[in-house]
Amino acid sequence: MSFSNKKSALKQGLIRCHHCGCIVQLPVNALHSKHLEPCPRCDGQLHIRLPNSFQRTAALLCSAFILYIPANVFPIMIVTKFGVPEHHTIISGIISLINSGMVPIATLVFIASVLVPLIKMLGLAILLWAVRHRWQRNMRVLTLVYRIIAFVGRWSMLDIFMISILVSIVSSEALEQVLAGPAATAFAGVVVLTMLATNSFDPRLLWDRLRVQ
Amino acid sequence: MKLNGWFCLKLTLTACDVLFMHNNTLNTLAYEACPQCDLLLKSAAVAVGIKAHCPRCGCQLYRPRHYSVERTFALSLTGLILFIPVNLLPLVGILVLGNAQEASLWSGVSTLYAEGLWGVAILVFLSSMAFPFLKISLSLLVSGHLYFDKPNRYLKVWLRTLQHLDEWAMLEVYTLGIIVACVKLASRTELKFGLGLAAFIALLLVIVMLTSSLDEHLFWQRIAALNKQ
Predict the structure, then answer these.
(1) Could you state, in chain order, the average pLDDT of each consecutive group of 10 residues for chain B (229 residues)?
(2) Cβ of B174 under 8 Å from any chain A Cβ?
(3) Do B83 and B19 fall into the same domain?
């Protein structure tokens, strides 16, 4: 099926309210005005596209990239056994899980706290690149990448929640104590920033740049 | 229409161009736009059990549910009741030298805060306690008003807020966190599962069912109809 002759809603003077999904007719000459009327159905602010989508996503993504370094370098968990502190980074925590024979759980943690943030950041970078350079091919695949990133985003919080349980449960000073390390804040920052970046990216920008034949 | 998987019918809407009626007015209800590629589509009445998709980018547009308002109302009421034991009772515990040490949703937050990681503590508090509570109570408010056909000028604000905080309520992810923490502890000590964990699992199921039963498309239509009365 070919859609090259089909025009987007915007090109026909219609915008979709991104809160309630209803279609609103764009007033004449309103294409470049900053302030649109609120949506007649849900009273939410209408936007032709998400405001400053490219710049916001790029800024949030850069911050996430920077925070990803301390998140992996510093210890995320400090386990003190009989007075001897042992520092665990994200990677060394996974390795110690493998060494103690818990491979399925190690895989789960690896996917949630290493693979998912990397996939998210790389995917968003590719999407931004595609918008910037007006890619004309594989639009469907790129939109699918966006959907996967949006779905997968929240699951990286797994590590943070696990630490919050361990920290409160293993706290007898005599035998063993678990403390959260500085990387926990950095890692939580990576997760929140990438989620915000995904929310501020507008996949319609990809399709807007498609040349109509 | 084609079969998608074993049981779910898939319907792709048809792309179209606008047809203006006389004096440039337009029946906007007859159209739909894809949220992800902005293709203009013809609205279609979709039956329960069928997913409507965008023909160009494949985005799922809507998926109607049986008794959406009634189910959302019942489930959010259940969820609100379950919220009390989940927050009061301990989830898991271990035995150290004869005395039990327990973790609840709140104890994790307060320990992290006491340790000086206030950023992480606030994030955990919001995503495991505040946002799930807001999500359930807002669904209760909206579906309750729709169920009893009572107009309220805040309905639109509530539903919009609900849509935006939906993905920040992360009880499903918290469950995985509990599982991983339990596996890590189980190799060293004996675990004790509290009644709070049973309540937590029940709340998790209720929230997942709540999310899938709330049909935003239908809710917005009902609110618009209610305000017109």
Answers:
(1) 50 70 64 88 83 87 89 96 92 78 88 91 94 96 94 92 92 92 83 88 95 91 86
(2) yes
(3) no
